[in-house]
Write a structure and sequence with these properties.
This protein is 75% helix and 0% strand. It has 201 residues and is mainly alpha-helical.
């Protein structure tokens, strides 16, 4: 996604992060994106269309950056000496970025996730996006040796999500300290998945 739609949706994600779902209005997005009044409503006629656009934009950003980074961490077969360590390294870096430089995107995602508990249409959009990420994650874990890659992808995603949420609420906020906290936990989870084994991390 490029151009004005991406610009508007990035502004909408910033509004979600700063003001929550209640603050997500067309006017607020125009202001956040520094666009003329009426720009957001021209491209996204309803609030529902704007919210759905935010979910699609989050998925696009994930597929542009986070997923390729994790995939690049694990070499194709034959695997290296420590695929679990490589995955833990990549996922800890992603987790640090989610809680720091991508904090706005992460907060917006959590706002949408909470709203989805009471909104079936939004929940369906988020599930579709999450399933896309999990399929890529499952393929990566299968390459690393996981015997049940779909279940493994669900478990790893849940752990990373919980760790990032905790970091946003309680810290640590320093990137180096956060990485040092994330990596051993992620390594233990990955190394404990059926079919995966690794040197101590």
């Amino acid at each position: 996604m490029t151009g004005r739609r991406a610009e508007i949706l990035d502004g909408a994600l910033a509004v979600l992060a700063a003001q929550g779902m209640r603050g997500l209005t067309h006017r607020a997005v125009d202001a956040a994106a520094a666009l003329p009044a009426g720009s957001t409503s021209y491209y996204f006629r309803s609030r529902g269309a704007l919210v759905a656009g935010c979910v699609r934009r989050l998925l696009e950003r994930d597929l542009e950056q986070d997923v390729p980074e994790a995939e690049a961490a694990v070499p194709p077969a034959p695997l290296g000496d420590d695929p679990c360590g490589a995955l833990a390294d990549a996922l800890s870096l992603i987790g640090v970025r989610m809680a720091t430089v991508e904090r706005t995107r992460t907060l917006a995602r959590y706002e949408l996730s909470l709203a989805a508990v009471r909104d079936a249409d939004l929940r369906a959009e988020l599930v579709r996006g999450g399933d896309t990420i999990r399929r890529r994650g499952a393929a990566l874990l299968a390459r690393a040796g996981a015997t049940d890659p779909n279940a493994a992808a669900d478990e790893v995603a849940a752990v990373l999500d919980g760790l990032v949420y905790t970091a946003l609420v309680r810290g640590p906020a320093d990137p180096d300290a956060l990485g040092a906290w994330l990596r051993p936990v992620l390594h233990r989870v990955i190394a404990d998945l059926p079919g995966l084994a690794s040197p101590a991390g």
